[in-house]
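Lab meeting, item 3. Inverse folding demo.
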C-alpha cells in the first residue's frame, strides 16, 4: 500500500492558494475551484513520538500534524520564514538549529496548520 494523498480542508481557498504559492508550490490561479491538487516528486511519511528531541518548544506549543517543506540551506529557511511572516502569516517558531544538523522554522497556514520549513545547517 502507498500513501496516495495528503489533503487539507480550507476555509478560504483564495488565502490558501496565495499562501502555498508564496511558499513556492505552483498552484492554479483560479480561486473559484473547490479542489486543487499539487503532485510533488517525493513525499516521506513519518511518525514521531518524541518531537521534543528536535523541537524543545513542542510541549509549550503542541501541534499534532505538520507539513514539511525542504529548502536545502539554513539561509533559505531564514529567508522564506522572514518573507512569510512579513506577508502576515503567523510565526510559530523562528529558525533554529537542531542537534542533528538541520535548521527548522515553523509558520501557520491560513487554516492554522503547522508548516515546517527545513534545510541543512
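The presenter then showed the designed sequence:
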Amino acid at each position: 500500500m502507498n500513501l496516495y494523498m495528503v489533503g487539507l480542508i480550507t476555509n478560504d481557498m483564495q488565502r490558501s492558494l496565495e499562501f502555498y504559492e508564496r511558499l513556492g508550490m505552483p498552484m492554479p490561479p483560479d480561486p473559484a475551484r473547490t479542489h486543487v491538487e499539487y503532485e510533488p516528486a517525493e513525499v516521506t511519511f513519518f511518525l514521531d513520538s518524541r518531537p521534543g528531541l528536535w523541537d524543545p518548544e513542542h510541549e509549550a506549543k503542541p501541534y499534532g500534524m505538520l507539513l514539511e517543506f525542504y529548502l536545502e540551506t539554513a539561509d533559505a529557511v531564514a529567508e522564506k520564514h522572514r518573507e512569510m511572516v512579513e506577508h502576515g502569516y503567523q510565526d510559530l517558531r523562528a529558525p533554529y538549529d537542531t542537534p542533528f544538523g538541520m535548521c527548522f522554522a515553523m509558520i501557520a497556514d491560513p487554516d492554522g496548520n503547522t508548516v515546517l520549513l527545513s534545510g541543512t545547517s
